[in-house]
Amino acid sequence: MINYQEMKKTVQKKFDDFLGEFAFFAFSDKQFEEGEKKLNAGPDNKLVRIYGGGFLLASKVEDFKALIKECDDIQKQYNKDKKQFKQAFMYELANHEYHIREDVRDTLDALGIDEEDLKNPEFKKLIKSYIKEYMKNINNYYDKLDNQLKEVNSWN
Measuring CA to CA, which residue among 100, 99, 117 is closest to residue 108? Predict the structure, then answer.
């Protein structure tokens, strides 16, 4: 079983490699000009905007879409294993600070879970059980921390 962080690194590397070769990100005219030069962009080699201030060679749009689908498929395949999915779900709950915000949408998005997936009552029940376990673990952690602080304060 590959751990979730390793799977994410693998997917991120695919994106980084692709974007490093066929795209750039620019937040100033200077950065844009440097990116155009790097990719040899011009009238015969046009650019399109992508998310987050990015620019991609127009000729690579379909390849980029295919990469996104490939990475989504990797995540979906990973999610099929119940143990792996639990690890990923718990990681993303923490990553998106569920214990503070109590909003699960970012966690679901990060894992590629959509409305269609949530129509499955067993899947919904599983997610609720993971959230309950996560919050119990967080509460236990804070209880332990409180006890340690009380002990330290009693050292006067």
Answer: 117
Angstrom distance (rounded) from CA 60 to CA 39: 12
The predicted model scores a pTM of 0.76
* Number of other CB atoms surrounding residue 87 within 10 Å: 18
Q: Domain ranges in the chain?
A: 1-78, 81-156
CA angle 46, 51, 54 (to 5 degrees): 45
Contact 71, 15 (CB under 8 A): yes
pLDDT > 70: percent of the chain:
99
Pairing state of beta strands 54-57 and 47-50?
A: antiparallel
pLDDT in tens, 88-124: 999 999 999 999 999 999 999 999 999 999 999 999 9
What is the rounded CA–CA span in Å between residue 60 and residue 47?
9
